[in-house]
Amino acid sequence: MKLALLGCGTVGSEVVRLMRMRATELANRIGEPLEIAGVAVRRAGKDRSHLGLDPDLFTTDATELIKRPDIDLVVEAAGGIEPAKTWITTALSEGKSVVTANKALLASDGPALAAAAESGRADLYYEAAAAAAIPLMRPLRDSFQGDTINAVLGIVNGTTNYICTRMTEAGMSFGEALAEAGDLGYAEADPSADLDGYDAAAKAALIASLAFHTHIDLGDVHREGISSLTSADIAAATADGRVIKPLCIATRDDDGISVRVHPAMIPRHHPLANVNGAYNAVFIEAESAGQLMFYGAGAGGTETASAVLGDIVTVARNRRSGARAFPPEAAWQERPVKEIGQALTRYYVSLDVVDEPGVLARVASTFAHHGVSLATVSQTGHGEDAQLVVVTHLAPDAELAATLEELKQLALVRHVSSTMRVEGE
Length: 425
Known about the structure:
A hairpin with a 2-residue loop joins β9 (about 240-255) and β10 (about 255-265). The protein is built from 15 helices and 17 strands. The protein is about 40% helix and about 25% strand. The protein is an alpha/beta fold and about 425 residues long.
């Protein structure tokens, strides 16, 4: 069974290393040896002797490698949109199954890739695209087919979870936690894809698509980053018995699907509250299976390569037996995707207020005016330090946003010091 590897960076190199180290095991699991027949790279002359591969296997012509008649399957580990999209489409159209971890491409062009796989009667597998080594895509793709998933709540970005953890546990500022994450290799030199939520949004689109049997485009995902997170927000959550986590949230009901990524408070007793550092976890609520959580390392070259190898074994077995996995996209239905304003959320709101009679009644009436009911209200401090802390019941996000705007205009409210969505309750 001959394999073409496209890209030999962090993940690609680990795929090579693990394939060589586990060659006998993989051959036993597939039923025949698995051979790397070519590796497409940007610079063919670079010293890669540490990989133990014949230098003649490296080429800069990925298309020629893909089209070679002896190539059985293709592993795309280059990343990015182009030329990865063209390479994967070419391979699938040639009837060669593809394994990829390219979340950005899958989130933006999933239907086109699925159509190419259907046209070429080939498999397209991407277990490593959403949570690295955590087995998540396969259960969503296969194990839950007899069930109905109603909600997915997850931490799918290790960089932002590390920052939130250090701000909570060590009292660091956002800048200090980000700097430490960079020193430890958890944050890229340009961390904007993580901090601004783009990485999590791509993963959320893939997870929601499989969970709800509906194509969710990257543009369907409401995205907010964590760059505005402050030590005061962390302290407010702690004082209220909650922690702040960077969440991926996907829900479905009779009116449609909501998919969003943003920081939120969750109660300390929630299973995700103790997912710390650079770890990831995804919490699923299904009608029959109930509540389940998938936990583990969500990033790293070795961890990602492990999931890639699992997919390689699956598609190799399918090719050897002349079979093909049923493509999940073939049974997907079109369902409406809600705007963020339609999403039902709770809010934590902290207000610096004038310390005089009638303030609580005026604030409560503002919430009531927008149809938002209050779960809890408490006052702390006196005089210049007077503060009202409000936690709402579920309400449309648009109504909560409108309430906040009106509160900011009240003379009795000096400052809206903290606002945060509350999940998991």
